[in-house]
Amino acid sequence: MNQTYAVAAVACVVLATVLIGALGLRISRTTSDFYVASRTVNPGLNAAAISGEYLSAASFLGIAGLVLLQGPDMLWYPVGYTAGYLVLLVLVAAPLRRSGAYTLSDFAEARLESPAVRRLASLFVVGVGWLYLLPQLQGAGLTLEILTGAPDWFGGVLVAVVVTGAVAAGGMRSITFVQAFQYWLKLTALLVPALFLLAAWAGDDAPRARFDAPAVLRQHTEVRVDDTVRIDLDAPLSVAVAGTVDGIRHEGRQTTLEEGTHRVESGTTLTFPPGADIPERASTGADPAGWSQPLAGGGDGYQLYATYGLILATFLGTMGLPHVAVRFYTSPNGRAARRTTLVVLGLIGAFYLLPPVYGALGRIYAPELALTGDADAAVLVLPERMVGGLTGDLLGALLAGGAFAAFLSTASGLTISVAGVLTQDVLPSRGVRHFRLATVLAMAVPLAVSLVAADVPVADAVGLAFAVSASSFCPLLVLGIWWRRLTPPGAAAGLVTGGGTALTAVMATRAGLAPEGWPHTLMAWPAVWSVPLGFLTMILVSLVTPRHTPPGAAAILTRLHLPEDLAARPPCEGARR
Amino acid sequence: MTSAAQPPRREVVTGVPRGTRRRPGHAPARPETDEQTPAGAVHVRSLMRSQLRAALYALGTLVLLVGTLPLLFVLPAAVLGSFSPSAPFVWAVLGAGVYPLMWLTARRYVRRAERNEEDFTGLVEGR
Amino acid sequence: MTGTALAALGAAAAALLAAGFALGRVTARRAAGSGPDPGTPVERATFHTLHTASLAAPPLRAGLTEDTARKAARPLRSLLGTRALCLTDRVTVLAWDGIGADHHRERVMHRVGDVLESGRSQSVRTGCDDPECPLRWAVIAPLTGEEGVLGTLVAYGPGESAVLVRAATEVARWVSVQLELAELDCSRTRLIEAEIRALRAQISPHFIFNSLAAIASFVRTDPERARELLLEFADFTRYSFRRHGDFTHLADELRCIEQYLALAGARFGDRLKVTLQIAPEVLPVALPFLCLQPLVENAVKHGMEDAGRVCRVSISARDAGSEAVVTIEDDGVGMDPAELRRILAREADHSSGIGLSNVDERLRQVYGDDHGLVIETGVGAGMKITVRIPKYRAGVHSQPGGS
């Protein structure tokens, strides 16, 4: 891959982001176009901004990688990410806007009139935000490593520096235009190469991707294993090995590996003849390979359960993501918020048609990525493999730019919303300087974790963030909007129980504490039981503490559900006495 | 540029603190307890009910169309033994088919919710 | 090994569950304020009484309504130790706590008439037909406010008891004090609202006069422009004089500024250059009504003071996380910082300073002292005013104009 083009593309994306952030205000110099400048954001622009912020690197790179590894079952991820917006639309969108809340903690305070619940919600906002930032930084590291050979920490640091610099220096004066630009950039960056790749695929007699059998290498391939892996062989494999396999040093001679599990040390190069089957990576409890945990857990029952775990987490978790909630504030009213969400559904639905294409093509043309653990790079290496030449380099550069846009947009959105909560609820005093401090803090923690814990399997933090959000904020939002009798103690108990158990379960699984079999599956996919648990706790504790129903609950629910033009009327007289 | 062309220096001026008469963060000029009249409350409840119905209808559609798919993919294999849905079918459904369905469900919901609000406005104004 | 891990996890989950419930209960208890209570029986009784009274006080501080009466009735009854207690206003029964609601409740209003009129406590026979019913006697005590008797407190007992009469009267008096405090709260709120209304209605008569004069000058030469300006003027005054709602959207406030600038532009022509930079995401921010327009008016005034020169005013609103930052800058004559300080402290009066101190005060009133105006100025150095508006603040909801 031509590094110069890729580096230039990444630099362009960074530059454009900073410039649009600093200058992307509506500027008018004559009074006649004041009206245009002061008009509220229309649903189209706002929806592009929401989609731009939402489509993270997990969508841009991760889905294709997962499909390459695991096959079409992984398509549940994009389906879930999209359906999350449908659930958000029908249950939350308009009332959330009408509450006037900017962050989810604002909503908790507005609905429950309790500073204690507000602080608790803030903790969860910051926690979920950090969980979600972590993989963005790690993914950036991986991308730059593949593109330029830079050390794996460099990409994360670059994203952190660009985002913190732009936000803290007051550069992000208007993030709406930045995010809208990033959406269209990401869509273009994925769509244009996809067309070229499909043309190349058709020109290659359209081979079918096989997911039910080991992938077959089409040509003589050298695979360098960067991280030590264990491979499972169903049949003896003839391969040239330069490095260490099963503790025995080989010097590039042809070797035959017997059936069973083999351990390939890092730095080993395996050279496969054309037509060879790519061996499967042996599954381990904690697999750092993907963005999100694969669904396959053995038997059908496990897989079905895992699929439903994924569905629940993504369908219900989207509404509780910190950077999603804050964008609704930009809509002028509840009705616009609904229409905006409808456009968002269209935009992200259109986007998600593309990653599976890369996944399928990757399975055909770059199957060895499954072995090296760099499956997420499938999107980036395909143009070079399939198209080649200058066109391939340029397309690769476009994809690199798009991937970087994905890191930047999600990371900046998350940083701003986390920093907002930090300034309001965590740091002692308020002011512009404190917002800068909060921005640095919001980015520093996940960056430090991603640097320190580079080898710990934190890559599926996205899935974890969704599960925690679904078990904590989903009950809070849904009950807060639709149920009069929710009380602050109930909300607090539900947040802690639902979100806490989901977090504990997944963390325990990742730390390897979960026993094999059903307990492992149950804990790896907690949403199926932790979401109902969160709802149940909130409802039960609210029912035992009826005296703590906030005095203004009826008035607040009225405001959440009444169209703004009606709510604007002076309240009816004689209401209070 | 000469020093004479530079504008005179500015100084930062702020007002006098109001003291602790009011805590920041809790100064609602219009208290939250502005209740509607009982008749208004009944109307609002009916609006909430109709909006909830619309939402549950859309959610039901989602569960029925998308939520049952995993079962659909697994059940035939469990019942008939070796049969499993063909890969192209899974690809077509999950890769493309569900998106238009979800969008149409959403659009239907948005229309219904807006109609509910219009009906409600009409009801209140016709009073 | 797996068994141990499973057990550990189960324990952890159980502990977390318990912690969740405990947190909920603790939050629930905190308001109730109960705690460990070692002490003599007398101390305990005193504490119990005070605690019970403290439970009844918060609802009563919101005034006498069905809702507050219902919440207050139980602690009041336990304070008196009677089998049944009833709170009424002048017309109807507000709340009944204890036994006998089925057949006594509807009779209460017939018996309290005398007390409502006289304002004196009475002890009367209930005349209950049910021999099993322990509610034989009722003590009716008046609840008074500033405007006379607001309602009654009725305590039921098995026989005539001077102690009950005395106790009920005292409790009724205590309730009356709470109700008077409630009235006081209410009038204080009204006072603050009136203050805000008075503050914001300070549209300068000069502006009205000058605008009309500028419009008049176009009537013959450019009737179409005169018509447009007149419409702008109508919109501007409608917005400024609107009655309901203390808060507005930044978008609406900007529209008002736009109308103001159109009118000012008609007067000053090309001498006024305005630049507007708006981050669209802050347009829905709710903020106190008419709190930016006076600042723009101030900037224009400062810029126009020096007759021969072109004045540049730039207005920007940008996004800063959980706040919107609005700045209004002019390159006009500026102001002496010391004098400005006096104006903001309301120690000096200055025609162009009224708007500033008014806005500063309202911002501090609504958002607290951290959110007052920050003004950078010097004589001949122009002026830059910065306002930080939180995107969300409890109780601040914009009400769009129009109706």
Task: Give a quick set of tags describing it.
heterotrimer; B: 127 residues; mainly alpha; 3 helices; 64% helix; C: alpha+beta; Beta-Lactamase; Heat Shock Protein 90; 2 domains; five-stranded antiparallel β-sheet; 12 helices; 12 strands
In short:
The complex is a heterotrimer of chains A (577), B (127) and C (403). In chain A, strand 4 and strand 5 form a beta hairpin. Helix content of chain A is 64%, strand content 8%.
Q: What features would you describe in this structure?
A:
Chain C: One of its GO terms (cellular component) is membrane. Chain C: GO terms for molecular function: phosphorelay sensor kinase activity. The complex is a heterotrimer of chains A (about 575), B (about 130) and C (about 400). With about 575 residues, chain A is an alpha+beta fold. Helix content of chain A is about 65%, strand content about 10%. Chain A folds into two domains: about 5-205 and about 285-565, Sodium/glucose cotransporter (Up-down Bundle), CATH 1.20.1730.10; about 220-275, no CATH class. In chain A, strands 2-7-4-5 form a four-stranded antiparallel sheet. A three-stranded antiparallel sheet of chain A has the order 6-3-8. The model of chain A is unreliable at about 285-295 and about 570-575 (pLDDT under 50). In chain B, about 65% of the residues lie in helices and about 5% in strands. Chain B has three helices and one strand, in the order βααα. In chain B, helix 1 (about 40-65) packs antiparallel against helix 3 (about 85-125). The radius of gyration of chain B is 30 Å and the shape is flat. The radius of gyration of chain C is 32 Å and the shape is elongated. Chain C has helices at about 1-30, 40-60, 65-80, 100-105, 110-120, 160-200, 205-220, 225-240, 250-270, 295-305, 335-345, 355-365, and strands spanning about 85-90, 95-100, 120-125, 135-145, 150-155, 245-250, 270-280, 285-290, 310-320, 325-330, 375, 385-390. Chains A and C meet through strand 1, helix 2, helix 6, helix 9 and helix 16 of A and helix 1, helix 9, strand 7 and strand 9 of C.
